[in-house]
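QA checklist item 7 of 12: single-chain prediction sanity check.
[x] sequence parsed
[x] length recorded as 209
[x] structure emitted
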Amino acid sequence: MELEYILPGDIEKRSFEIIDAELKERGIILPGDQRDVTMRVIHTSADFDYAGTMTYSKDAVKIARTLIREGADIVTDTNMALAGINKKKLAMYGGRVHCFMAEEEIAREAKERQLTRAAVSMERASEIEKPVIFAIGNAPTALVSLYELMQKKPWKPAFVIGVPVGFVNVEAAKELILKTEVPYIVNRGRKGGSNVAAAIVNALLYGMI
């Protein structure tokens, strides 16, 4: 295998060319409206399994981009995802990114109630008085909390990106979101992560017209 000499500004373009070629070699055709998102997830992870496990509700990409265009905020469950999302691009449409996980008040309440910080963070996020896109890449309890909140009160997220990674309750938590009427992008199975959650949001942002 030989080194390719590529200008720094062309590395991402070349990466997507390689991904596209390998998808064709595998006989995989990504649906048009989902292509940008799944491609960027593969680019972020170097994992082609996502081509088969990324799951989209009807018109998910269109709905998510409409929400962004109308100024929706984004709530993440990690500061890593918060750092990875293109906040400047989101701000062009009036949106902000929030992560409540590191707040002392959240940690204190979670300890007192014997809940995870992710669960308490989702409760806090449900109080935001505008449409919210949830981008969950780490904590399955965040997805469980969102599902339970929908059962307890007349509230629902505007959109859920559900891609937590791990082994404990990860798959079951994702399946809960698939049962709801909330529009979603979910990666079935154990794989995901904060980097994947950020990649999905950025793919939505970069594809805005």
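[x] summary fact logged: The chain has one domain: 51-206.
[ ] second reviewer sign-off
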